[in-house]
Amino acid sequence: MYVPDYILTNEELATMVDTSDEWIMARIGIKERRILKDEGQGSSVMGIQAVRDLLRKTNTLPNEVDAVLVATTTPDHLFPSTASIIAEANGIKNSFCLDFGAACSGFLFGLELCNGLIQTRRYKKIILAAAEKMSSITDYTDRNTCPLFGDGAAAVMIEPTTEDIGLIDTILHTDGVGYDYLHMKAGGSKYPATHETVDKKMHCVYQDGKHVFRYAVANMADVAVELMEKHNITPEKIDWVVPHQANMRIIDAVQQRANVSIEKMMINIDKYGNTSAASIPICLAEYESKLKKGDHIILAAFGAGFTWGVVYLKWGYDGDSVAKR
Q: Computed from CA positions of residues 175, 179, 181, 183, in that sequence, does the dihedral angle turn out positive or negative?
């Protein structure tokens, strides 16, 4: 994982917009977030470092990588792909590179894409990265959205296995009903950039918080329970639940609905805020040393689109054996 050095605290936010640490903590549960401050740097800067560390950690040569997939809502450019920029900076020349977007659910959708590629038996080493510079589309005069988002990136290596580990099942959904409630209106082909779109801040995240909260709580919690029932997984059998880090109240609702103890929930929203597609793999990276081979893990996310889903996996290695590499 990689997060920028600069920490934007609630106290500093309170000097920019009408808010307070107490208000943000009570409603969202975020204490601080990391921000990529330097001019001319995009999501690729963070993704490059995360992938560089991943190659070193897994003892993988760049020419061994077959594909690089990057989940991002904030690519450096419409083209070329951020994946190609990350690959080039790491000397990866023998892979195909692809950006894709599923908003905050991007990492889960990416795992399913990688699973399909592995099943073809043509790909042996796939890097799945999530890189988000959410500060670049955040309106820091909007007290309802600016406390939410932070910047960060993380990357994982996906490989085939003959053992009883790895990705077991996924349940993924998209419902276009969410368009009106969570979007960035301008910047694409429908509303290209103009003085008017910039002046109206149409290139920033718009969110109807009440609607999004209601959909997120219901769908994330329901699909997690659906997966548990499908595989006869009891709360006691689950070792970890990794929820998308969007709002502490949503995380609490998922925890209560799945009836899993809070000690089994991976939570770091207080330190990083909502890093969109990067939030789940950043959690996995931070908790890596606690993970054991064969751990039963459920990943759950909800994002714009609306997109949502869960992934059930059995962890592939003892985390404490590699976490400090």
A: positive
